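Supplementary Data S3. Sequence and structure tokens for construct A.
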Amino acid sequence: MCGIAGFLSPVTCTGAAPEVITSMLRLIRHRGPDEAGYYLDDGCAMGTVRLAIVDVSEGSQPMADPAERYWICFNGELYNHLEMRAELERLGRTFRTHSDTEVVLQAWAQWGPGCLPRFNGAFAVAIRDSVTDELVLARDRYGKRPLFYTEYGDDFLFASEMKAFDAFPGFRFALDPEELRSIFAVWTPLPDRTPFAGIRQLPPGSWLTVRNGQRSLRCYEHLRLDVPPFAGSEAEAVAQVRETLRQSVELRLRSDVEVGVYLSGGLDSSIVTKLATDLSRDQVRTFSVAFEDQTFDESDSQQAVASFLGTRHSSINVTNADITQNFPSAVWHAEVPAFRTAFVPMYLLSRHVRDAGIKAVLSGEGADEAFLGYSLFRETLLRAAWDELPEEEKAAKIAGLYPELSHFGSAHRVSVMGLFRQFSTERLPGLFSHEIRYQNGRFAARLLKGQQEPFADLLSLVHDTRGYFELSAVQKAQWLEYMTLLPGYLLSTQGERMSLAHGVENRCPFLDPAVVLLAASVNLRFDDGFDEKAILKKAFVGELPKLSLTRPKQPYRAPGSVVFKEQQPDYLELLLSDAELRRIDCIDPVFARKLTQKIMSTPPAEISTKEDQAFIYLLSTAVLNQQFVMNRESHVGTPSQADVEMVTVADRRNRDQFAGAVR
């Protein structure tokens, strides 16, 4: 795991390129605290801050192929690097290190972009061709690792985190009101978008070439959900699901450093922990978040799983004060407005994990998308069949729809009946499954000036996706989750960005391509949508505590707007002061002021979910504006920039210099 950054700029490369690339790397040093290095030529500068996981002593970057034609800056892990190395050696390729970075480099030299679908990993990569002066950027198929780019005048900039652009001479951040409108409505940026004007992220499963000022963006891997149904019996499906997951965990345990596990206490992380204990020689270390507020605490379940599997368990207890104190720093690392505070405890957990000496962890992200674990999927099936069902069956289905909600009584059932009746037919073409959820987002979008349609870009995205409208209603719901909330929030804001804030790499066994494809085929045969993760549970009967297999899914949550009302942090002044509020040019100050006043003056039980989410969006946007646009550190405590000691420097300007390894 690393952070990468760079630019194409003939003018800068002839002058202050070493200072500029060093400053860019300094801003993302938290991603790779072990070492750093950069490459320069007449038109390109690029560098890496490295978190050494594989081949710790010899995998320094940037790295060149033997002919020094291709230079690579690689962020992430290639889990099948041993298999690919063997294949490349059979083709005559020779290796100087044992690192997966060199495997990626040699694979590119051998196959070009044809290597990308062969990779099983989590990565973002930059490759410079010193012969053609072409720069290539590529990203893994599920968007596990970030990669951003922008054009600034005649220059092209890229980085693992957008904050690196702040070190480029003259660059300034500006919030984009239309992108914010979409983010507020959809809950996350769309696959190629960011909250900042002119900055884009490379979509998952794509690669970008830049040469002579021309850009070409292409997709190398589309999300596949329209697969044939599983051909075997249910017993065969159960066995294959277990074995495919075992192989996935085994791949992700490949490391030259110890790998821990995030244990939430739910089914998915418990399965990952079980397989990790089976495959590990040493006692597995597990890590969890507990909450002062018992409404959100799952420590009993976490401890039960840890005791059952015999792990060395450690947890942190998060208070409301912890959330407010660390909210600005977590936003700084997330670089995007958030609709809930749940990413802040993950920021604190990763710090705890790193303090415990762990650099890499496994987690359960991706299981709910693959094996239909969200109530959203059950809702979609029920709403799609609503007009054909008798009233008594509707009532029975709704009564069992949310088993995780202990307070879900008759009044709630009546309310949901009315809501499902209202949304039983599609209003937004292709977005049927998410239309109810998106009503909360539509409310939040009112925070922005103007009345533009907040879902316009998402509607365009699904319209332009080949085969999307041939998918079933549930498959469309899966596609939307895979393309929006998963990469845009769960893997990034709540996942990778929080773990890498403290130099911890997160690995996701449920996002192995083989697991995703198998789950899609098994769902078509054996999942009726209402028996949550039935095949997955059967695959681990007797191997986990009974409660892990029988209790309803408990979504990971954290206290919301109430913590800011209770703790009154200094940066709340960004919303309470009219002068500060008006500094956010795109926000409607009247609506924002009314919302803030209601949150501050109303008992928490009377605050709706949509109001709570909108407030956290507003506050995180105000903090982002302060940190990035105003570039002011007061109130928000942006982390200090760490010094960067360069281990590898390759200066090939004028093609006659090479400094080799400098220590």
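Construct B, processed identically:
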Amino acid sequence: MTSTDVQPAHFIWTDDDEWAVTTARVLAMDAVEEAGHGHPGTAVSLAPAAHLLFRRFLRHDPADPSWAGRDRFVLSCGHSSLTLYIQLYLNGYPLTLDDLRAYRKMGSRTPAHPEWGHTPGVETTTGPLGQGIATAVGMAMGARRERGLLDPDAPAGASPFDHRVFVLCSDGDMQEGVSAEAGSFAGHQRLGNLVVVYDDNRISIEGSTELATSEDVAARYAAYGWHVQRVGLSASGDIDIPALSRALEEATAETARPSIILMRSIISWPVPGAQNTPKSHGSALGAEAVRAGKAVLGVDPDATFEVSAEAYGRATAAAREAGSSAHRAWTTAFRTWESAHPDGRELLRRLMDRRVPAGFDSARPTFDADAGVPMATRKAFGAALKAAAKELPELWGGSADLGDSNNTTVDATSSFLPASSAQPGADPAGRTVHWGIREHFMAAAMNGIALSGLSRPYGGTFLVFSDYMRPAVRLAALMKLPTLYVWTHDSIGLGEDGPTHQPVEHLASLRAIPGLDVVRPADANETAVTLWKVLREPGRPTGFSLSRQDLTVFPDGTDGHGSAADAVYGGYVRYETPTQVSSTGPADPDVVIIATGSEVQIAVAAARDLADDGIRARVVSMPCREWFDAQDAAYRDRIIPPTVRRRISVEAGISQSWHDLIGLDGRSIGVQDFGASASAAELYDHFGITPDAVASTARELMGVRPGRRPVSP
């Protein structure tokens, strides 16, 4: 606020508030100038709004950034990371002036975009526009589900598990499609614990936003079912802070639907020459503009990173006292809840420790090979997921409108829907999420649920549509979140739906994401074993690639077969034909066939055929490359002996994932082009993914013809 702005009687804005806002603006300019690059304009103009949120509305404790009772703040416009970093610094979080000086530098706690787990007080990694607001919707979902698990009978607003999610977003967030998916879903779910402040500065890198959009954002969000307010500019051209304060009061009082405040601002206000310019969005302002801006703000134009020790001390002391007071009040309420809910207390402790309950392993289903009933791995996964859900109330999720195909509905009688919904099974804390056809949002919201901290989300669709999810999957890997993706119909084996629905490059593409585990089990028992491993070890995201078609259930530990229990190592000997035995033990195989998923049964059939020619073949089922690569060299060499250079990979997709394992002397059998509309059997034959093709390739590597035994060395 400036001298030209009138302060309403009900609104208090002190000299300390004005100092904090001015200091935030100056530090934003200085940090970008020091770095030589960055996004100063938004950080300069948003300073008063961010200060108002952190000082008047956000419940947080700088002394305990991970306090369970805190509100969450998501800076969806992650390019304006200084908006967040400077508030953390001015509120007494463990961030220093030197950290601001090190903005965007290697190893600093102030990277270009906020990174969760790297900087205290950052609730999620943002930067790709739209991800923050979509993730925040997931946080609001997680809060509602967690409250329903732990304190379902408390009156609204009276539970220690009630908290709000605040979002600061930009024009770019509004334009990204994922924010539309998120906005639609949040309105439908009536997520009243979500408050979004949209910085409507109408500037993007290329110029005015009118170059690219002319929609009425307020009308769009009203149509979604949100509570919508507008805040204009003050007389001086700054954000109208008294009006924003009133709007936030109304938004936080509205608990029956999410709220959005369209807040008008002028980028880089009040810097002369930089206001309302696209350059100030993504480039340093320059020394002269910074000096002019400081002069307008009434500070020394020649000083850099200058912060009054006295004013800073008052600011941080006030923020810490407010946080401590809120924390103490919450702790009292939490202790009362603990005393009244001993079972809930034990559940909460287990969830916070990320432990599975005692006896969890005994709940894993097993599937009988002797029954002779083949089963698609998607169906086996569905059965295993239901069994796990009985033991893990924190496990919840659904599908992008493909529940019956993905087998992701663990409880058809409990749907995550607002109390006002007339749908059967509607429950504000329901277990089954009907994501709708919103794959991108589903993945981003799963990140928010995981970040909320106490529950374990999953989401399903066809593997080919993982492309829609990829930006959020990548962020999950970057943050090491325990999200669980259920990707079914995972190859040309899905049949007649044709090349638009048949994934070919997807497995290799997903394996290329660092930190993502891609699991493609070979049969029902491998599916259950690997799912149990994932649920026991919630350290990173995992995607399951599951077959539409039925697959043989292999014998376990008999008739040349290994044990599915070894699938936890990522790769193991699934089948081996009889070997010659020397005085030093079993001889190495003549050829190693490495296969995944539905192609393992093809590899086993080929190995049996090769045995008739006296060729000793070992079939390695490799459900997860990432897990196998994590084993020590001794284990990997035992499974795939370095001395055996005749190696074949078999997977119904491009072969990019396998060149390092098969080596220069190996061969890959896969699909190097798009599929076609035909039956699964026709497609496998067309692309040469058959037992005969695998066996013929092995014979070529051995230099023998069918029916001719190899010459002993």
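Residues 309-340 form the longest helix (32 residues). The mean pLDDT is 96.
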